[in-house]
UniProtKB/TrEMBL annotation:
<dbReference type="InterPro" id="IPR002220">
    <property type="entry name" value="DapA-like"/>
</dbReference>
<dbReference type="InterPro" id="IPR013785">
    <property type="entry name" value="Aldolase_TIM"/>
</dbReference>
<dbReference type="Pfam" id="PF00701">
    <property type="entry name" value="DHDPS"/>
</dbReference>
<protein>
    <submittedName>
        <fullName>Dihydrodipicolinate synthase</fullName>
    </submittedName>
</protein>
<dbReference type="GO" id="GO:0008840">
    <property type="term" value="F:4-hydroxy-tetrahydrodipicolinate synthase activity"/>
</dbReference>
Length: 340
């Protein structure tokens, strides 16, 4: 018996398909670790030139919980300037708006809109996890989406929300909201992705994997892309899996997926290893030579020497592939990996 397809309308502003990077935050080498906007600008342009289809700021990899509201707005202004000066003023910028209260999430959505973001990414509340009933959970998303000037993407990551997991029934219910356009499944549940894509077209409700190590399976299951921390280090390779797949070069996409999955293992261990990987493999390319730029914000610590070596060994499997893929050709770019 075939699955009943949803008849909800297509969304007015769906999130474009492809590979998105949840961009790390970069800091100055001071005691208070102020945001280094020059570094953020350079890294942003590097990622766009690497062929990524969109960028996410102030998510988990962006250490959103460690940034204050003014810092969040300033970063979004910086990166909107960076993509505009590459000749891509409408490039998708997704802003994390996750907070523990409905009111704060709505305010973050409004702030992000004013600062130049195009979409919003929202975790479920989790401060009192046992009190987050299905009614409270669905009400939270609907209330925020009602007031948000940006289309909302649900963000499911039980590892950072005290185990709260948006299941396929929850997400199917939320998909009917006109301002909720998709989901990022960092839970890694491909079965959940299949259940959702069997009911909804991407225009109705888009499904994205939460990392690139299962991008190929996500696409095969009907998903439309992923949001991957590894793209901070290897933007070309991660984006290229998607590009090969949509060109129907599935054997090549599958082979690249295998290498990417092995490199991403380092990102699974901790954010500090992802940030170290950016510093090691990308820093010199974009003129950022101070390793402290890539440290986590205090109280979190950079990796020790043993884990640094391990990260280099694990990620190095992707270096040759990354270097073989050309950068995105851009017309009318006004800057090249640097602030004007």
């Amino acid at each position: 018996m075939p699955v009943t397809k949803s008849t909800i309308p297509a969304k007015a502003r769906p999130l474009p398909p492809g590979v998105y990077c949840p961009v790390i935050s970069l800091y100055k080498s001071t005691k208070t670790q102020e945001i280094d906007h020059d570094a953020m600008y350079k890294h942003c342009q590097y990622l766009v030139r690497g062929g990524l289809h969109g960028l996410v700021y102030q998510g988990t990899n962006g250490e959103a919980i460690l940034l204050n509201p003014e810092e969040k707005k300033d970063v979004l202004r910086t990166v909107r300037k960076a993509v505009t000066e590459l000749g891509l003023p409408d490039y998708p910028i997704v802003a994390g708006i996750s907070a523990q209260s409905t009111n704060e999430s709505i305010q973050l959505a409004k702030d992000a809109y004013e600062a130049g973001a195009s979409f919003a990414l929202l975790l479920p509340p989790s401060f009192w996890a046992k009190s987050v009933s299905e009614e409270a959970l669905l009400g939270f998303y609907r209330d925020v989406a009602d007031e948000s000037p940006l289309p909302v993407v649900c963000y499911n990551f039980p590892g950072v929300t005290a185990g709260i997991d948006l299941n396929s029934d929850d997400l199917s219910a939320l998909a009917s909201h006109p301002n909720i356009v998709g989901v990022k499944l960092t839970c890694g549940n491909v079965g959940k992705a299949v259940r959702l894509t069997s009911k909804f077209s991407p225009e109705q409700f888009s499904v994205y994997g939460g990392s690139s190590d299962f991008l190929f399976p996500t696409l095969e299951a009907g998903g439309v892309g992923c949001v991957t921390g590894l793209a901070n280090v290897f933007p070309r390779s991660t984006a290229h899996i998607y590009d090969l797949w949509i060109q129907d070069k599935k054997d090549a996409a599958r082979k690249l997926q295998e290498v990417v999955a092995n490199a991403e293992w380092a990102c699974k261990k901790s954010l500090s290893l992802t940030k170290f990987g950016v510093g090691h493999f990308v820093g010199k390319r974009i003129g950022l030579t101070d390793p402290k730029t890539f440290n986590p914000r205090r109280p979190y610590l950079p990796p020790n020497e043993k884990m640094q070596k391990w990260t280099i060994d694990v990620m190095s499997v992707l270096v040759e592939e990354e270097n073989s893929i050309p950068e995105r050709a851009l017309k009318g770019a006004q800057a090249v990996n640097g602030t004007k």
